[in-house]
Amino acid sequence: MSRPFAAKQGPIFVDAEATGPQRSMSLRLILDTGATTTVIKDSVLSAPGYDLSRTTDRVPMTTGGAVQTVPRIVLTRLTALGHHRFGFRVLAHGLPTVPTISSLLGLDFLRDGILTVAFQSGLVSLT
């Protein structure tokens, strides 16, 4: 299933849903084929029920040349581009404060499929 995006400007946004221990929430992701791992803004992870202060799994993350240690959590489910990933690990990070961006959809979500980005038609799909 193809999803529209603004082909003539800005990044490619993908609507998604993250499910945690208490509830599901809608997210707006940036499709980032340069990110090896999906990153969700740490400030939004409390909504589905994650408490980052209790997370013991922390991993190094390289951002713009700096390496930071960030929490890694396991989402109950992440749905994007018509696909579900259950028990999906994501990194929690304080991404830039931009209201429309809550996370980055990385290669780890895309690897098992065929990603098609059609700029002429303004459609993106994962099959």
Explain this structure.
Strands 2-3-8-4-7-6 form a 6-stranded mixed β-barrel. Strands 1-10-9 form a 3-stranded antiparallel sheet, with no helix packed on it. The protein is built from 1 helix and 10 strands. The relative contact order is 0.29. It has a single domain, classed as Acid Proteases (Cathepsin D, subunit A, domain 1, Beta Barrel), CATH 2.40.70. It is mainly beta and 127 residues long.
In short:
This protein is mainly β and 127 residues long. Helices cover 3% and strands 50% of the residues.
CATH topological fold name:
Cathepsin D, subunit A, domain 1
The strand count comes to 10
DSSP strand content = over 45%
Please give the order of strands in the largest beta sheet. Answer: 2-3-8-4-7-6
Q: How large is the count of helical segments?
A: 1
Sheet with the most strands? 6 strands, mixed, barrel
Note the gap between the termini. Answer: 8 Å
* Morphology call: globular
Key phrases:
127 residues; mainly beta; Cathepsin D, subunit A, domain 1; six-stranded mixed barrel; three-stranded antiparallel beta sheet; 10 strands; globular
Secondary structure elements and pairings:
Elements: E1 2-4, E2 13-19, E3 24-31, E4 39-41, E5 58-63, E6 66-80, E7 83-93, E8 103-105, H1 107-110, E9 115-118, E10 123-126
